[in-house]
Design a protein that fits this description.
20 strands, single chain, 24% helix, six-stranded mixed beta sheet, 9 helices
């Protein structure tokens, strides 16, 4: 974190190894292994009930794991109480004290740490300056907008100079426009402050806009960890592919293997060559996945570039147009810029094509 809030301490990393938490007979967190690099913005992404909030509460010390290990900055904190973990927490509902002023809310953690009173005011002032809320010290939470309340919660989290900032769906209570503005502010704050940050969210756009890396969770397990582009372009499973956005998916099988490349046979389509998965064998069932924006559409001519179908749905989304093309035995989703709308009208015959480099194959 910058000198204004963290002195000269270097950012701390987070390690969770073989982490398990059960509620009754259900494993909400089921053997998670995660390593967050010092200074990284790391997001745990997944649908409701996947275990992401339970994971965050284990890291924070709100819950105790049934098995596994948690380390912050190399120090084992698996059984350490929440107050001994040097973490800052920002909750979905901000959890501000309505009867306290902004300055008093931000200073609360310092009082709990028994920081001398003379040191609190300058640290509160620096934290409010960091979140651009100078001049709001005497206001009460009810006098602030949702975005301003969120920034107060962030200031309260960073004023204690934590090693780790934990964010639990912090933007979900904001309207769409304010959420977008706050995403930008949060990204800027994290870069300026330099603190290791772990966010949990179900919002894909939020995760991709903010994160250096993302862990996608499902049913208590981590399905894949990687940079946003890697996850989107090269999903490791059908779940990851579908969860991260619209996708064309076709069942196929491995027809041939050549080093790290596999030839995939799909009924009704030409053979495709993709990167082979670990342990694949000829004959294995796989699924080909292709993002709609990678599909090329051209009016059908005498020499079509690919299979020919008819457009049976058109959805205009402002800066994008979504098409559904009916082929003989399947539908293909495509997404283009709106400049081609006139040429690609509802009912038009179009040739559908793509590059093999844009395909990914996952175990079926």
């Amino acid at each position: 974190m910058a000198a204004a809030t963290r002195g000269e301490r270097a950012p701390a990393g987070l390690e969770a190894a073989s982490l398990v938490k059960r509620f009754g007979g259900t494993a909400a967190v089921d053997g998670i292994d995660v390593a967050v690099r010092p200074g990284e913005f790391f997001t745990v992404l997944g649908p409701s009930g996947c275990g992401k909030t339970t994971f965050l509460r284990l890291v924070a010390g709100i819950l105790s794991p049934d098995a596994g290990r948690i380390a912050i900055g190399g120090a084992d904190v698996t059984r350490a109480p929440i107050w001994a973990r040097r973490i800052g927490l920002v909750f979905q509902n901000y959890a501000l004290f309505p009867h306290l002023t902004v300055a008093q809310n931000v200073a609360f953690g310092l009082a709990m740490q028994k920081v001398p009173r003379a040191e609190r005011a300058p640290r509160v002032a620096r934290a409010l300056q960091t979140v651009r809320l100078e001049g709001y010290e005497k206001r009460k939470p009810a006098e602030l907008s949702g975005g301003q309340q969120q920034r107060v919660a962030l200031a309260r989290a960073i004023v204690i100079e934590p090693d780790l900032l934990l964010l639990d769906e912090p933007l979900s209570n904001l309207d769409a426009r304010l959420r977008e503005d706050m995403r930008s502010e949060l990204a800027d704050l994290q870069r300026r402050v330099g603190i290791t940050t772990v966010l949990v969210t179900h919002d894909i756009h939020e995760a991709f806009a903010l994160s250096d890396r993302v862990a996608v969770m499902r049913s208590g397990k981590v399905e894949q960890i990687g940079a946003p582009t890697e996850l989107y372009e090269r999903p490791a499973s059908r779940f990851v592919a579908g969860f991260l956005g619209p996708v064309n998916e076709w069942p196929g099988r491995v027809a041939a293997l050549d080093g790290g490349t596999a030839e995939i046979a799909v009924d009704g389509l030409r053979p495709c060559r993709v990167a082979a998965g670990a342990g694949w064998r000829v004959g294995d069932a796989v699924a080909l996945v292709l993002r709609p924006e990678r599909v090329r559409l051209d009016p059908a001519g005498d020499d079509p570039a690919g299979p020919v179908g008819r457009i049976d749905q058109v959805a205009h989304l402002g800066n994008l147009v979504n098409y559904r093309i009916a082929l003989a035995d399947r539908a293909v989703l495509a997404q283009t810029a709106p400049g081609r709308t006139r040429a690609l009208a509802l009912g038009a015959a179009v040739a559908v094509a793509w590059d093999d480099a844009d395909l990914a194959a996952v175990a079926s």
